[in-house]
Protein 1
Amino acid sequence: MEDVMVSSVGPHFSGLRLDSRRLSSSLSPSSSPSRSANADASLGFASPKADGTRRPFVIGVCGGTASGKTTVCDMIIQQLHDHRVVLVNQDSFYRGLTEEQSEQVQDYNFDHPDAFDTDQLLVCMGKLKSGQSVNIPIYDFKNHRRCSEKFRKVNESDVIILEGILVFHDQRVRDLMDMKIFVDTDADIRLARRIRRDTVERGRDVTSVLEQYVRFVKPAFDAFVLPSKKYADVIIPKGGDNHVAIDLIVQHIHTKLGQHNLCKVYPNVFVVHTTFQIRGMHTLIRDKNITTPDFVFYSDRLIRLVVEHGLGHLPFTEKQVVTPTGSVYMGVDFCKKLCGVSIVRSGESMENALRACCKGIKIGKILFHRIGDNGQQLIYHKLPVDIAERHVLLLDPVLGTGNSANQAIELLMRKGVPEQRIIFLTLISAPEGIHCVCKRFPDLKIVTSEIDSGLNDEYRVIPGLGEYGDRYFGTD
């Protein structure tokens, strides 16, 4: 699999990964909504700070020496001109050499994780993420020491780009990132660039550069840098020369920044962690020329992801089991009191995914009739008789104006379901719908796979999916 990824000629888009910290945060049966929100902070959708200021979006850029990381970062910064962006280099956090180490500098491994003061990096990044300005150390590569009286002041920003050869190595650093990019460049090209850089910019001779590369750089790349590629959300072959990949990444970042900001306003809104695999499926189902079977197939895949993410917000209880090896495994038990409610008819497209995830789950129905441009009338509903005792997953693939959702939520609450026990699952959402629902029901959770631009004059989500029910059931 690694060989296939390396041989790719275009940007590689990785699949989903579940951060293990999110599971541990939900183990306790006393998990509260605020703890759930904190758990999802690792995905980049943190709740707003107490003072109401915004948390920045953090992008990690990793790759081998001279792979073009800085070039990629500069190109991203140039295209994000409408945001405040700062660049933090891992190289700034090299540990200064002692006099004894300086005398034997040829034997010092600058490419090993221990060469960096990761604790200080974490402190600086923590302050930047909390909206504080920091003083970043300045490292003298000729003398291998920090400039004790010089610092680079970095102010608060909308986007923080952290780049370095080992920024993916330490999980604590990875957990700070909302998006991870690996710059993958041919080894011969990287070596040639390093020779030119170290001789011209750092005053070293070719012989010492080659000796250092063979003794330390290449072994460290194989041992630490290359294995960290598996953590990347996006892999860019050819570095800064791959303009297509960088343009796609910038478009993706713009989309995520819009979602990111809305999720800060409403900590009860959760967007499925987006990769280009998910973006690719959205591209397919939004294409007006896609066939109905393909639309159903990729919609079902995305709906399954939304359902799984929504289930992750339900309370769990601890449970011990004995494995076939005779060992004890401490795990969790699923929430038992659960049901789904679909808003007919497009919401019925989400029922199969819910049944596939929750065996034997009860599913209720709510039917509204549209009145004019913006009104809804309840026509029919059939709900489990004990719904007041259950957690409810409300299903509707498109959240537009929010009117249908609000009326469905009000009906559920009249039936005795507490607001905090309702999780609204939707494929795409308009900001207007999110505002409408969250302002009225701040304790309800919304889980969606993408937040679109808004509504047009006809109250249709833009860019949207069209009439979802007709497209899914083939009745258009």
Protein 2
Amino acid sequence: MNLTDYIKDIPDFPKAGIVFKDISPLLANAAATDKAIELLAMGLHNFQATKVVGIESRGFLLGILLAQHLKLGFVPVRKPGKLPGEIISQNYQLEYGEDALEIQANSIQPGDLVIIHDDVLATGGTAEAACKLVEKCGGVVVQCNFLMELDFLEGRTKIEKYQLHSLIHY
């Protein structure tokens, strides 16, 4: 099964000049979703991870399935103001400005071995911020895991100190 057959290019979304990689067809096909989870999980049992962190919002979709497949807990990393209780925040740079990600302070315990998951690695800013959040909580990032990687944006340079796994490269 070729997973790229289930990813649709949407030109000029969300703005002119961007080609959005829509994973909705993959999610709508149970066999393609199962295959993606199987491939994303390959080799992860060796890490003895304790948690999967999914990055808002498309990282939640396969991230929770990956966590269930591996029998691990799932922790969401969200945009500011979306999580209750004590939170930890991490700013990161955008092309034109700054944004932030947040995690609940008690969701990662010191020594937790964590897999970071998102649907796409683009410029690397959100993945880097998620890694920093996990480390602020005392966790250890054992792998950054992506369905797709946009190689031309060189996002892996921001997280090159971590082990990376991307299923599809564009």
Protein 3
Amino acid sequence: MFPELKWYYVVVAYILAPSLSFCNAYGAGLTDMNMAYNYGKVALFILAALAGKNNGVVAGLVGCGLIKAIVSISSDLMHDFKTGHLTLTSPRSMLLSQAIGTVIGCVVAPFTFFLFYKAFDVGNPDGEYKAPYAIIYRNMAILGVEGFSALPQHCLQLCYGFFALAISANLSRDLSPKNIGKYVPLPMAMAVPFLVGAYFAIDMCLGSLVVFAWHKLNSRKASLMVPAVASGLICGDGLWILPSSILALAKIRPPICMSFQATN
């Protein structure tokens, strides 16, 4: 169906998938957030650059969808395990159920896709199924084909710096004594606010303070009720929505702005 996606690109995607799936499962366990779309974007840029200008856009888009689908399963499995832990469900039963559901999805999902693809005008801006994200991902694939020169100024330098910071933080946390290493921040948890916004860090900070105080006041009740209370607080816009609304009513803008601009 997509001749631009050569078989060796699929091999590259499956080589990248296990490590990205592990990272996504680890991040979902820490933050309860599925970052499969962001890992798919990484694969999009890599495959688009490998395929070149002639086939890079289509190859990058299909490879992105392939990686996203594979990586997303790891996050779903982590969420199932966390739910099973709270409900005292057997982990083996959860894993077996996930495997059976994945096998069924391999048959049902293609039929569902072709049903929508053939029956409806998918992608038409004036139709019912506009697919607005298709334009966004296509533009990202075009950037990937153009190479590093299309990225914002100092983008690669920032990536190198934060990558080195993450590696050094992980090494210092793993190699330091436990009484010292526990105070080293987790790079995976630090990365989430950079993607979804600083409000996430504020929500997590306030929630951690509540959990800490609750354990000090009544440790037994806190251990039982914290997951349920946290689930209720996660639903909706989070704790930051209240101060954010107050700042918006007061017409106070954030104190820090950052933009990438070309310099002469």
